[in-house]
Amino acid sequence: MKEHTIKTNFLSCDWKELPEKEQMLVQLAKQMTQHSYSPYSKFSVGAALLLKDGTIVKGSNQENAAYPSGLCAERTALFSANSNYPEQPVVALAIACYTEGHFLATPGSPCGACRQVMIETEHRYGEPMKIILYGEDRTLVFHSAADLMPLGFFAEDLLG
């Protein structure tokens, strides 16, 4: 038996230190928390992504009384982008979380299902997708979705 280590690199900053386009994505993600339908969890998540051609696609979490029927903000935005702009890779994705009247001080982290969709989207286009996790006290920036999920599952894994 041999033990291995997986390391990931990311930036920690104030969101106002980001380039202007990424600051705009964060602002849009924050705004999208207000479009969340989250009457059960009271946890609103907004997402905004930038496509390679400059198009911006937004999403918010959508809950349902039958809990598994809801959808996270990240997947709402990614599925919309993949459906409406299938030739355009995602360059960056910003995510913000809002609950109890304020944004989280430290960034919320995407669930495993969202991470899987992110890495498959990256894999599909063969280009990294920057992930920006907004928090009031600090923002985390990952250079690739694979940094959030280093041992991803892809179509070729289905072949055995």
Give the key terms.
Cytidine Deaminase, domain 2; alpha+beta; globular; 160 residues; seven-stranded mixed sheet; 3 helices; 7 strands
Order of helices and strands: EHEEHEEHEE
User: Approximately how much helix is present in the residues?
Assistant: 10-25%
Which runs of at least 5 residues are low in confidence (pLDDT < 50)?
none
Q: What is the number of independent domains?
A: 1
What would you say the CATH architecture is? 3-Layer(aba) Sandwich
The proportion of strand residues reads: 15-25%
Helix tally?
3
- Structural Rg: 16 Å
- Terminus-to-terminus distance: 22 Å
Instruction: Look at the structure and give the CATH class.
Output: Alpha Beta
Look at the structure and give the mean pLDDT: 96
**Overall form:** globular
Predict the CATH topology. Cytidine Deaminase, domain 2
Q: Look at the structure and name the CATH superfamily.
A: Cytidine Deaminase, domain 2
Tally of extended strands? 7
Structural class: alpha+beta
**Main β sheet profile:** 7 strands, mixed
What does the model show?
The structure is a single chain. This protein has 160 residues and is an alpha+beta fold. The chain has a single domain, classed as Cytidine Deaminase, domain 2. It is built from three helices and seven strands; from the N terminus they run βαββαββαββ. The chain has helices spanning 20-32, 73-84, 112-125, and strands at residues 10-13, 43-51, 56-60, 90-99, 102-103, 130-133, 139-142. Strands 1, 2, 3, 4, 5, 6 and 7 form a seven-stranded mixed sheet that branches. A hairpin with a 2-residue loop joins β4 (90-99) and β5 (102-103). α2 packs parallel to α3. It starts with 9 loop residues before the first strand and ends in an 18-residue tail after the last strand. The model has no long low-confidence stretch (mean pLDDT 96).
